[in-house]
Amino acid sequence: QLHSDQDKGDGSLKYILSGDGAGTLFIIDEKTGDIHATRRIDREEKAFYTLRAQAINRRTLRPVEPESEFVIKIHDINDNEPTFPEEIYTASVPEMSVVGTSVVQVTATDADDPSYGNSARIIYSILQGQPYFSVEPETGIIRTALPNMNRENREQYQVVIQAKDMGGQMGGLSGTTTVNITLTDVNDNPPRFPQSTIHLRVPESSPVGTAIGSVKATDADTGKNAEVEYRIIDGDGTDMFDIVTQKDTQEGIITVRKPLDYETRRLYTLKVEAENTHVDPRFYYLGPFKDTTIVKISVEDVDEPPIFSRSSYLFEVHEDIELGTIIGTVMARDPDSASSPIRFSLDRHTDLDRIFNIHSGNGSIYTSKPLDREISQWHNLSVIASEINNPKDTTRVPVYVRILDVNDNAPQFAVFYDTFVCENARAGQLIQTISAVDKDDPLGGQKFFFSLAAVNPNFTVQDNEDNTARILTRRNGFSRHEISTYLLPVVISDNDYPIQSSTGTLTIRVCACDSQGNMQSCNAEALLLPAGLSTGALVAILLCIIILLVIVVLFAALKRQRKKEPLILSKEDIRDNIVSYNDEGGGEEDTQAFDIGTLRNPAAIEDKKLRRDIIPETLFVPRRTPSAPDNTDVRDFINQRLKEHDTDPSAPPYDSLATYAYEGNDSIAESLSSLESGTTEGDQNYDYLREWGPRFNKLAEMYGGGESDKDAS
């Protein structure tokens, strides 16, 4: 309440209020000066308010006293409960931790004034999670309350913590939160094999590196604490098998280390150990952190293919051995206990020429064709061994045959020598140096000797003793007109056993040379001159040949042209041609013109025979026309002419269309030419044209109609 000393209680003064919350949160009674709160005040929103009050004259509104300032302070009450920043906490602690191990600290806050009473004094307590965990009342730190808590027994815990103000006394407000605690793993469990003995089986044919089975030790721990390393520590199969740790599955994979043989050993025993790779020293007392098991491996019998005594064979043989000679023997056996007989054969893809063969029973390889080192020095064969009882089981082995050299080839000239001697050569002059080659390959190298097959008065050979020789002249001067070419037989022999030799013949031409010995011309010109054929004579002969060829070509062309030309046309033929090509007789609409085929006998056309002494030209097949009335004169005439031409040896080698198209002198139609009909038009009757068929309808209309018109006029 505000009161002014000037206030006499007569209502002449008026109190006014300004400042924080004036008029909204705080109001003042103008007459009495009492200050009231309009609603509930929360200290947590604002702890104090600064206001200013003044008394003024109601009529003049002038202040009667100076403005005074005062502060309204809000006293706190316990109206806020403690709250946690998170509703759920997550924490972890290693398993097997000692009692009192700190897990996590939770902290609650209270909005009340901590400086006023115990409204903001918080005490923590555990509502859920005992007897495993505890909480410090003042700090809110959660600790383990039981020793050796095992994750493998229980991994998750839920703890409920309460925070209460007023120092935890009755009437205090409280709040709670939940803490989910997980026990993390430590390596407190050693690996354990579920079985003390494990049995595995493996076929004896399993190649090296084949996985035959696996072993696995269980470990209750997780992550790296459960990692295990496997090893073979004892047993009679330590050199035959290996074990590899599979990291992703934590299994021990047993693999074949060496080839197995059922006939040699059928059972192996291994002692396998599994040990943790990460051991915690704090838990050594729980060890040892390893375990062992016995693995028994049984080898199963498999029908194995034959086995050769060697991985490959090498045989050497001379190329001159006789056919059927054995060059070597391969050996193989059946490794199975049954010991099946073995059959040998050659892979013919490695011996396409069938030079070798093999005895199927004992594996002896012998020759079936002659050998030649100069053709092939090596032969790479493949021998197949198979069981007689099971031919599908086969094994191959390479056989290398080396052909040794025998001196069976004579030396020969290394190249073809084009040798010449100058006409002005002197005795002892070098005209050629020769060398030789030999297909054989002796161990001591090639050595050749050169000599003449007989004493030659013109030339001699001098051996240089380095596998070459020189050809020298023995006299002065040579004449190419007398002898243009000399043949010199040279004997070449080798130095191996048996000695081989051959005779090579050098062709030596006599040539004209200059003073320096350079060849200018040889005997080719000399051979042409005596024949008397000059260049002009050769040109004349060539021209004659060309003229003869031209005559032959012209004759052939004329003969072909005569085949295509018709015979000399008779008067009747000319008349027929005029009718055939003149559209005037049939009018413009008659595109077929006149067909003389209507006068022919169809039977005579079918009976027509081709001449056998010539090859007739291909002509168009005549169109079949309606049969015309039989005309004996025309048929007899045609047959007579046909017979004459067939029996006449001077007749042309083809049939004339003009001859066979002759209609005869006694034809009923006589001539249809418009040239003649113009002079005899009044004496002829053309009505018979209508009886000749549809091909003569147009003519019947033209001539028959014209007569009718004339009569009508």
UniProtKB/TrEMBL annotation:
Pfam families: CADH_Y-type_LIR (PF01049), Cadherin (PF00028). It is a single-pass type I membrane protein. InterPro entries: Cadherin, Cadherin-like_dom, Cadherin-like_sf, Cadherin_CS, Cadherin_Y-type_LIR, Catenin-bd_sf. The gene is Cdh10. GO terms for cellular component: adherens junction; catenin complex. It comes from Serilophus lunatus. Residues 4-84, 85-193, 194-308, 309-413, 413-527 form the Cadherin domain. PROSITE patterns: CADHERIN_1, CADHERIN_2. GO terms for biological process: adherens junction organization; calcium-dependent cell-cell adhesion via plasma membrane cell adhesion molecules; cell migration; cell morphogenesis; cell-cell adhesion mediated by cadherin; cell-cell junction assembly; homophilic cell adhesion via plasma membrane adhesion molecules; synaptic membrane adhesion. This is CAD10 protein. Its main location: membrane.
